[in-house]
Amino acid sequence: MKHKGIIAALLSVAMVSPLPVAANSDLPQIGTAGLSVLSLEKEELLGELYTYQLRAQAPMVRDPLVTEYIQALGHRLVSHADNVNYPFDFMVLNVNELNAFAYFGGHVAIFTKIITEADDEDELASVMAHEISHVTQRHLARKMEESQKSMPLTIASIVGSILVGIANPELGMAGLQASIAANQQFSINYTRSNEAEADRVGFNTLYHSGFDPMAMADFFQKLVDQYRFVSKPPEFLLDHPLSETRVAQARTRAMQLPKVIRKPSLDFELVKMLLRTQYGDPPDKVKPRLENELKNHEYVFEEAIHYGLGQVALMSDDYQGALDIANKLLKASPHSLYYKSLKVDALIGLDRGEEAARFLAPEAEIRPNSPVVALNLANAWVRADKGSEAIKVLEPYLYIHPDDSLAMDLMIQAQAQVKDVGEREAWQAEKLAYLGAFDRAIGHFNNAYKALGDNVIEQRRIEGRIAQLRAKKARFEALQRR
After folding, report:
1. Which CATH number does the domain housing residue 463 bear?
2. 63, 120, 199, 389: which is the annotated catalytic residue?
């Protein structure tokens, strides 16, 4: 669909495909009439709004192994970036397209194909550094401010059209085309300027974070070569127009610096393998490819291929086969959370949930703050129908990670198992609030309030949460009047 490229030309940074707003979303439609300077506060509010919309509809990868890896890599880059004005958040979307995007408030999303197409961690880091730079340089805000000066009557309709496009792509597309028909070349030129700046700033972030600066040029060149004669290039090339000149500039910058030699990252290879097997083609197609790669020694780490075969076994319901592979991998690398998670999933598949939980429980003592450990352990207890044990794991975890939707889902299941109606209703409310469905969340909080009976302390807490949700919705609605 062509609307992605037009949105990208307008906004300078690559935005995700318009997605329909969930039926349970209570978020207001935002305009930007009267906008002269987009403050950091307003940027954060807009970023929060977009995030709610993505949470409600985008196919987010919620596997804690992937999430923990991409967050760690992203924050490593952010720690060496300049002009960081707010906390960054990184997500992976299960979309088999070559694309990435950044938007208001420090939010960066990577499509799964970017990770699986990257040859190494440095190439992935180069894309993330580029997107981080779009945010730190405030390209989206600057574009909107510049557009307000040159075409003050259309900036509100542009942003409004984007939001309409999220609910109805065809209507959104028509609105966008009408809004920018007379200013399209201006938008494209501005985009090129933004892209050049993001290259330069992202390059510095990449290098100072310890990655190979040549990776940016290598990844760009690979894309140019791979899609040179393709009639419809991937969205990344539409949103981030590449030219031989741009690639040459990236290569020249890298050649002026000392060569960086990094060891291959096993974590990167394992995450890449996890995405290939769990979120890519079906097992019957993936398995022969992996077996062929193993036979021809076409791998960076042999254990990553075996790990992939273990994931394929899981996807094929061959839980004993997955367990056998996990045990072999753990014999060589007994502390790997990737292999321990594989074993836990295999045991759960064999209806041995309590055994899985007791296998992983000692790890919780060693790594009490690890999302991978906490979520896998809680899941094992839930699958063993021991909700009370899962709650013991999830309560402290959610106190530290209140926005983890997977943990919320597990908590709802665990509270149902122990038949605590009040707590179950409260956590259902929290999950709806996470998705931006504030009115429905308040309804569930009211149910929780009634179910709690004489528990005055918990009732006061719920009253506080309802007040918070009403205040947040009011802040979003106030954006329409600013």
Report:
1. 1.25.40.10
2. 199
